[in-house]
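Propose amino acids for all 441 sites.
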């Protein structure tokens, strides 16, 4: 009787299994209108979604890698000063006016870009374009706001210095690209002329992209763009320069007395988005480190209990890229964790993954990409990345099929090519005394 009940239960369980998922479809990007103004500013209008909001963003090649080497931090300081009002809207009026449009102003500085924009109710899209043009063309950059802007930047840098992972990442960028974080003294020494000089040098239409994504009246937005941005005339052109990383094998320990954890960061050059190996590398990366069920997470977290998880990040300047592995482990197991990390890297370099493992990771990478593009901001950021990397818009629709076409042999090949221990830089932030001597390179 028990055997019959067991068989019936097993049969019922089998019948309850969900059906296999269908084949994943490529992302079908929405139709868009692109044009270039007489001053060189490129514009993309992308109708998208059903929510009555529109995301508008101007992306300029004025990020941290555009800074003079002796003026690190000036891009962030300039971005903060650009929020302090325009000749038409003083700072408080600017914030209030944008709030009445149903949105908020965002100014962000990344490695390659400075982006200025916001998301507002669709009915106010044309009006927000007028405000955005004011910010870009006629910022006040008031002298009285400079001390507060400097103080705010210094406070943010101080907070970042207290974060071990941030400290390790900054050291990696300094070693590979010669770009460092400014000291408080350096930031304190900046004058209004420095801010105005960087603004004049970097914020101009010939190297700007304007993105309008969401629900909007195309004719009204097109007219507003031409009305408010066409008269923007400045001199100077910032041409993108491919950064060549300084590659060598090295290991450094940044002493953090009494630290209970070691922040391990391992970096190696990776294919940039325009490289033929880029898609296969993303799949190899996900299998190794970029999913919660990755090999490294299974090893370090599940098998050994060294960490809550390992993850990877990609650092992508123009036509260059760094892959960075992140793992925060208990100080006493730092050396053991390093051994396990390199054993998993070696395993991927020495043998192709099983087809079933490969398929699961491919579905994850493709699905995550589509999900990221499901919001207006996600779509803006991806289109902006392609433009900054001078890549075709067709990449959006080609991505999913390309990911699903990756084979175990492709993963093995790119792992051998790119996860090269001879080119890896390892930075550990932790207590040197507790970590002990690391094995020689």
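Proposal:
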């Amino acid at each position: 009787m028990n055997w019959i009940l067991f068989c019936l239960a097993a049969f019922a369980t089998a019948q309850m299994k969900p059906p296999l998922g269908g084949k994943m479809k490529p992302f079908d990007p929405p139709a868009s209108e692109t044009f270039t103004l007489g001053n060189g500013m490129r514009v993309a209008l992308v109708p998208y979604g059903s929510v009555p909001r529109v995301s508008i963003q101007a992306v300029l090649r004025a990020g941290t890698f555009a800074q003079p080497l002796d003026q690190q931090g000036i891009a962030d300081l300039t971005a903060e000063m650009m929020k302090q009002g325009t000749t038409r809207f003083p700072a408080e009026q600017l914030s209030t006016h944008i709030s009445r449009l149903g949105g908020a102003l965002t100014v962000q500085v990344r490695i390659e870009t400075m982006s200025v924009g916001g998301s507002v109710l669709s009915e106010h899209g044309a009006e927000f374009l007028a405000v955005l043009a004011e910010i870009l063309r006629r910022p006040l950059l008031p002298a009285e706001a400079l001390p507060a802007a400097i103080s705010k930047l210094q406070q943010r840098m101080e907070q970042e210095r207290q974060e071990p992972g941030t400290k390790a990442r900054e050291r990696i960028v300094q070693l590979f690209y010669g770009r460092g974080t400014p000291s408080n003294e350096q930031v304190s020494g900046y004058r209004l002329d420095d801010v105005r000089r960087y603004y004049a040098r970097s914020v101009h239409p010939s190297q700007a992209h304007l993105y309008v994504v969401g629900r909007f009246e195309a004719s009204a937005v097109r007219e507003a763009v031409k009305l408010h941005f066409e008269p923007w005339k400045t001199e100077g052109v910032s041409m993108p320069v491919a950064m060549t990383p300084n590659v060598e094998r090295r290991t450094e320990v940044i002493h953090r007395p009494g630290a209970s954890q070691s922040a391990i960061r391992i970096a190696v050059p990776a294919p940039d988005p325009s490289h033929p190996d880029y898609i296969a590398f993303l799949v190899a990366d996900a299998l190794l480190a970029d999913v919660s069920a990755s090999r490294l997470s299974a090893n370090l977290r599940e098998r050994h209990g060294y960490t809550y998880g390992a993850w990877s990040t990609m650092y992508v300047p123009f036509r260059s890229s760094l892959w960075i592995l992140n793992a925060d482990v208990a100080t006493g197991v730092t050396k053991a964790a390093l051994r396990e990390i390199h054993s998993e890297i070696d395993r991927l370099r020495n043998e192709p993954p099983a087809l079933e493992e490969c398929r699961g990771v491919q579905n994850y990478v493709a699905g995550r990409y589509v999900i990221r593009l499901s919001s207006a901001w996600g779509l803006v950021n991806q289109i902006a990345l392609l433009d900054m990397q001078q890549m075709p818009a067709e990449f959006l629709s080609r991505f999913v099929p390309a990911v699903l076409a990756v084979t175990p042999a492709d993963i093995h090949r790119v792992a051998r090519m790119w996860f090269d221990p001879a080119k890896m830089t390892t930075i550990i932030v932790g207590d040197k005394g507790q970590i002990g001597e690391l094995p020689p390179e």
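The chain has two domains: 33-229, 250-435. Residues 33-229 form a domain with the Cytochrome Bc1 Complex; Chain A, domain 1 fold (CATH 3.30.830.10).
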